[in-house]
Design brief:
The chain is an all-alpha fold. Helix content is 65%, strand content 0%.
Length: 182
């Protein structure tokens, strides 16, 4: 079912470390409202969805969310690569660095570990699709917040791309909801 292309869905070419932004990206990656949560929620929901078109939408978006995980992992690593000891300590990522180096990890910027309880699957199609729409808006809001906190064009470009994809996903889930309620 899955075909892996050995490239990111959007290029990540961050040239200079930014530990402060790395901390925010960690939350977008492995936080409660992060991309791991979205992907696993949608890919789990597709199994019980009787409507094959809606199941396909869940599969498409859940798969794309995995590509967002991949991008954020590359961004997090690039933001930490070659960062100074003082910057790592200053921005509170010293424990992260000791435990994970520059690697992405399933935790938010405060160190709270990702939890399977974040995966939103109730078995009720309307409840789950509505929850997915909210998840996409939370992701969009998260990207917009980080965009307001950086002026690095190498960070801004991929974050804008990801934000735009969340808007498209919200619209596609709206189509799914209309179909289910139709």
């Amino acid at each position: 079912m899955f075909i892996y292309e050995k490239r990111l869905i959007f290029p990540v070419k961050i040239k200079k470390p930014d530990v402060r932004v790395a901390k925010y990206i960690a939350t977008l990656y492995g936080g409660a409202n992060g991309e791991i949560t979205a992907s696993l929620s949608y890919l789990n929901q597709r199994y019980y969805m009787d409507d094959k078109i809606v199941s396909g939408i869940l599969t498409d978006i859940g798969t794309e969310e995995l590509s967002h995980v991949e991008m954020l992992g590359a961004m997090l690593t690039a933001c930490l690569k070659n960062a100074s000891r003082d910057e790592i300590i200053k921005h509170g990522l010293d424990s992260w660095y000791v435990n994970h180096g520059t690697a992405p990890f399933l935790a938010d910027s405060d160190g709270y570990l990702w939890n399977a309880a974040y995966v939103g699957t109730t078995g009720d199609p309307i409840a789950d699709i509505t929850n997915n729409m909210a998840a996409e808006q939370k992701a969009r809001a998260g990207y917009e917040a980080v965009l307001r906190l950086t002026d690095d064009p190498d960070i801004i470009a991929p974050l804008r791309f990801l934000r735009e994809r969340e808007i498209v996903h919200f619209q596609r889930f709206g189509e799914a909801l209309n179909r289910l309620q139709g």
